[in-house]
Structures are given as structure tokens and as C-alpha cells.
Design a protein that fits this description.
With 288 residues, this protein is α/β, with parallel strands linked by helices. It has 10 helices and 12 strands. Helices cover 38% and strands 20% of the residues. Helix 1 packs across helix 10, helix 4 crosses helix 5 and helix 9 crosses helix 10.
Amino acid sequence: MPDISGRTGVVALLGSPVEHSLSPAIHNCSFRQLGIDAVYVVAEATEQTAGEAIAGARALGLLGLNVTMPCKRAVMDHLDGLSPAAELMGAVNTISVEDGALIGHNTDGAGMLRSVAEAGFDVAGQKITVIGTGGAGSAVFTQAALDGAGEISVFKAREAGFDAMEERIEVLADRSGSSLGLYRLSDSDRLEREISESLVVIDATRVGMAPLANQSNVRGEWLRPGQAVVDAVYHPLETKLLRVTAQAGATPIDGLGMLLWQAAIAEEIWFGRTMPVGFVREQVFSSI
């Protein structure tokens, strides 16, 4: 990134809390390497202030936005359009500016699956299991269906909203041609069966983070060599889930890959440029 001048553009992350986000380090490193005259900053926003934040971004002429919790759904009503994937996911994490219009996208699912592909696993035509139906989980199973996964088993942690999520999954199955099933996370017998049959298992819940750092939704005896198991959590970097995965001989994949690749896809959307992923990984993640 050149020295900041009167021509330097701004990209911002909206959410709360955001002060510990790695996104500024990732994007500003990439901007410098690519010579993009822009700076990436963070801005606190909540569900209640999301609309005001979007209006401020319009007024200030920001080049683009990222959105994190708790604003991924709240911003949707304040945008001019949505990508087909974001509409199906019901959540936005990236906003582009196209001829003055703000368009919502979701790169979380694609970022997760690029991380999985980087480890040598292709979900096309395969059976996968996704634990969690929040913003990240919904993005992952939706993108997997759009990318041609053969069978997707989704587990929801909370009873609230189960019927509505089941309807969303039925719509996704109709549109994508993938076979999807929604189950309760409390059904441990079903969870064990679906995981044991899956090539890729993705946990998109908060289990593994404090205060749940000593917990895992998956037991080691359910896993086997030849599987990939992904934890969307990246703090701590090695969760209990990833430890039991390694002990079982399966391939553990941490959440940093998803974070990095969703950022790379966002830059493709904003600028049409390819992030130097290897360079950014080395520069930003080497000290983590």
C-alpha cells in the first residue's frame, strides 16, 4: 500500500467486537503487496446500528465492506441487492460497491471449502457433515450444496427455529440438487453415524472456544484416517476437536484457512485482484 493520501480508499469491517480481528492485518498486508491504494479499518456496529453503519459507508464512499457478527443478517435489509449465494445463506459477510449500489455477498462458505481443497479434499459428489446452522454453518452447507456435494448432513444445536431451518434446507436441496438432511445435535447416535460416513466433517459452532475450550462435539472414535475434520474456531488454534482428529489419524484443518481464503475471495470481489495468499499467510500467521 502506498503512503496514505487524499486518494487512498477505505475498506471497513463492521461488527462487534472487532478490535481483536485479524482482518486488518490480512488485508493491509495484501494491499501493500498488490499496490492497492486502500486501507482496511474496523468499525464497531451492532444489530441495532447496522443500518446507520451502512448509510455511513454510502455517505463516505467506502470501496467495500466486510461484516462479522452480530451484523451478518442485520445489514441485509439495508443493501441494494444480494448475490444468489448470500440470499440462500441468509447472511452477508462481504459488501461490494457496483455503480454506486451496495451488493451483499457471502465468502465464508467458499473460503471454508477452499481451505478444505487446499488440504486435498474435494466435496463434489461426496458426503459431508456440517455442525452448526449459524452464519458460518449456513454459509458452509449452502456453498457445499452449490459446489455439488452429493449428500450433506446438517446438525442444529438449538431447538428454536428448527422447522424454519428445515424449510430453508428443503429449498436449497431443490435448487442445488444435493441431498440435505437436518438433524438435532442432541441426537448423538445420528451424529456418530453421519460423521463416520462422511469424507469431510466441519464444526461451525463456538464449541472449542472459551468458555467451551475443553469440549468437542465430535468423539475421536467416530473418526478414521482419510477423513478431513475442520474447526471454524481459530482461537485457540488447536482445539480439542483438532486434537482428537489427529489422534484418530484423520486430517485436522484449523479455522485460519477459512479466515484467509474468505478474505482472498472478498478481494477478488472488491478489486478483481488475486491475494498473494502464501505471502500473507507467512507474514500474518507466522507469529500466531
